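Q&A log
Question type: sequence-to-structure
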Amino acid sequence: MNNKYKIVFIDIDGTLVNDEKMVPEENIKIIKALKKNGIEVVLASGRPYHSIEKYSNQVGAVPYIIGSNGGIVANFVEDKKIFSTNIEKDSALEIAKLIKDNNIYFTVTISGNLIVEDEQYSMTKENRNELILVNSLEEYLETNDAPVIKFSLMDDKKENLQKVRKIVLDRFNIDATEVDEFMIPKKYRKAENNYKLPYVMDIMPKGISKAKAIEELCKYLGIELAQTVVFGDGLNDIEMFNVGGYKVAMGNAANQIKELADVVTKTNNEAGVAYELNKIFDIE
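Response status: OK
Response body:
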């Protein structure tokens, strides 16, 4: 078995899971095998805490998780936060008003949950068990002191998100991810949308990314960055690829990710994670 690498970081959507949000059995098998051999496996996602827990339990990648694009690093078995950050309340209220004024659908991540006003773009209790429905997001933010980890914006038009992104970056001391496609299982896409994927963008505290989270967790565990393997497919994985020791892009990954990768593996629908992990660690 290859002992060069000590920890593996795996994105969820478009990477660990297939297009129907199911984890291929091959991925589950190899991750459990790695854990038995002393290799840490950590799911690193834009999803909130509670959405990641179910996948981490399913594949045996416990106890560490990276959620909200690096906004939180935790040992969820011990309910212990290793690293977390948040958007200040005054800024959060201003950002919420800005998004509303531009008629863009958005969610707010509060700790492990998604707060929404209505169910759209697969943001339904059926699909996302971490969802909390409220009458008004602005009212919720005004009356609730729970820390805001990030905003996620979704729209059918890329230019609408790009416009808000520019305003946010110009007006606030804050970060926003590049506008990317939002992966929704076909059964949750609207027929009138002709199955066209909407676009998504995250707004987060300054300097927060999956890369920052990886650095914090590796420091906590005493693991060098050169001993890491990272898997990803989307634009929110770019920073992660900039710090990973060995970088694996999915066959379905964005071109920017493929350009940064050491290798391009099979797609998420072909269990590319398992395929490449078997090659890297040679444990079968």
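Response note: The first strand starts at residue 7 and ends at 10.
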